[in-house]
From TrEMBL:
Its EC number is 5.3.1.24. Keywords: Amino-acid biosynthesis, Aromatic amino acid biosynthesis, Isomerase, Tryptophan biosynthesis. Pfam families: PRAI. This is N-(5'-phosphoribosyl)anthranilate isomerase. Residues 6-208 form the N-(5'phosphoribosyl) anthranilate isomerase (PRAI) domain. It catalyses: N-(5-phospho-beta-D-ribosyl)anthranilate = 1-(2-carboxyphenylamino)-1-deoxy-D-ribulose 5-phosphate. GO terms for molecular function: phosphoribosylanthranilate isomerase activity. It comes from the Bacteria. Belongs to the TrpF family. GO terms for biological process: L-tryptophan biosynthetic process. Pathway: Amino-acid biosynthesis; L-tryptophan biosynthesis; L-tryptophan from chorismate: step 3/5.
Length: 226
């Protein structure tokens, strides 16, 4: 299985179509008004319809959204995954999964080894665990900051889990990130943009190609060892 890529913060039908063409695992829509990637629900509903027609799965990314907000998002865009990128409790994530009948991804911000301890209570609840960097001081965004963290910390995860790696990934560091972590899933937002909130088709293509290169190298290495 190759590395699965989630392109996050898409705002245009062209970006959605390109993500599908590049074989993205999922795309994400940001529902957080302070973000340059924020989309209003009706716009996201149109984008989600484009994705659905192309067989591409969508993710609703929210930050401490109320149950009513989530209900409105789910009813309109019918996402395939709920991404919780705030301080949502395990109980809340569990209840939202049950209420909407959808899998959940919980984001955790990492700066030091002890930050990984926060994952424990979500094991068996969150279907996917995503690691992002801590927001820089003064940032109003809990994600989408284009900041990476010390990937070697993830080697300390006990027990080991398949996680989604995110935070400051770009075409320039994705191969190193994958070599270091072996993450089966990656999530990229600002690293495929020409300006905040503006996806750059050339960067999307280059990122997907770099992931493919990594996967091919891995496959060749496995063959030569066998
Ligand atoms: O992208 C955003 O603006 C955003 C806003 C609020 C919550 C999450 C957001 N994005 C998520 O942040 C990470 C990392 O982004 P980046 O690649 O460092 O720019 C990614 O998981 C997005 O899903």
């Amino acid at each position: 299985m190759g590395t699965k890529v989630k392109f996050c913060g898409l705002k245009t039908p062209d970006a959605v179509r390109l993500a599908a063409e590049l074989g993205a695992w999922k795309i994400g829509f940001i529902f957080f008004p302070k973000s340059p990637r924020h989309v209003e629900v009706p716009v996201a509903a149109e984008l989600a319809a484009v994705a659905r027609n192309l067989g591409l799965e969508t993710t609703a990314v929210t930050v401490n959204a109320s149950e009513a907000e989530l209900a409105a998002i789910v009813a309109s865009i019918q996402p395939d995954l709920l991404q919780f990128h705030g301080a949502e409790t395990p109980d809340h994530v569990d209840r939202m999964k049950a209420r909407f009948g959808l899998p959940a991804m919980k984001a955790f911000s990492v700066r030091e080894a002890s930050d990984l301890d926060a994952v424990g209570p979500y094991r068996g609840i969150a279907d996917f665990i995503l690691f992002d960097a801590k927001a820089p001081r003064g940032s109003e965004l809990p994600g989408g900051n284009g900041v990476s963290f010390d990937w070697s910390l993830l080697g300390g995860l006990q027990p080991r889990i398949d996680y989604v790696l995110s935070g400051g990934l770009t075409v320039d560091n994705i191969e190193e990130a994958l070599a270091e972590t072996g993450a089966p899933f990656v999530d990229v937002s600002s690293g495929i943009e020409s300006a905040p909130g503006i996806k750059d088709p050339a960067k999307m293509r280059a990122f997907a190609a770099a992931v493919r290169r990594h996967d091919e190298t891995q496959a060749l290495t496995r063959e030569s060892v066998a």
